Amino acid sequence: MTCRVYPAVAAAGVLVLLALSSGCSREKNIVPTGILEGDKYLMERGTELIAKKKWFQAREYYRQLVDNYPQSNYRPDAKLGLGDTYLGEKSSESLVMAQNEYREFLTFYPTHPRADYAQFKLGMCHFQQMLAPDRDQTETKEAVAELTLFTQRFPQSALLEEGRAKLREARNRLTESEYKVGYFYWRNKWYPGAIERLKAVLKNDPEYPRRDAVYYYLGDSMVKMGRRAEAVPYFDRLVKEFQESEFLAKAQTSLKEVPEEPPPPPVKKAG
Description:
Blueprint: H1 11-25, H2 38-51, H3 55-68, H4 75-89, H5 92-108, H6 115-127, H7 138-153, H8 160-187, H9 191-204, H10 211-224, H11 228-241, H12 248-257
């Protein structure tokens, strides 16, 4: 049988074609005659090929193992291998296929020893699709959600350190997007909008590395609106939390310019 693959015009069409193409390749049994443990043979060959980054060839072996050996002990690892072959290709279509494989693994094998790997890789599928801060952040939000779930569910995972680093990077991207909106409002002198956005940045991501910029523009926006007393805590936090910052001198100057609060009036004694 000859498989014909036509150009896809929509994401759904692409997924259908990918599934059909993989189905065509499975019609031929690739386990040599005489092999007693076909599942083991398929797993070993798939692992050898994926190590060489031969994604499509490795997928052939993993797919036959998953489809033809439902009771095999190698089947969960082959399922993950399928996800890895799609993730390795890094195209928008293959990343969607990778997500499907990892999600199915977590559905069928939620307590498997490699469930942490599946959850981490699911997060990385979205991580690989993150866009620049000034563009749509849907995939960034998904990456944050999946990687947060990974760190919460698998605190003992050997991948935890890497997962936290990737989560921090994804959160930085998402927060940077919000910060840029606040900065845009500040630059265009719409200070109420800047204050609202920049306060949200600090609330949603208190560990954002560029907090010094947020503190400064937030405080400066309040100063511009005549709310100097409210600006002081932000300038003060900038000075205390950052020994080096391009905004440090400006914040120190602003603190000196803010007038001190007048002392309260003396309390009159009765009689």
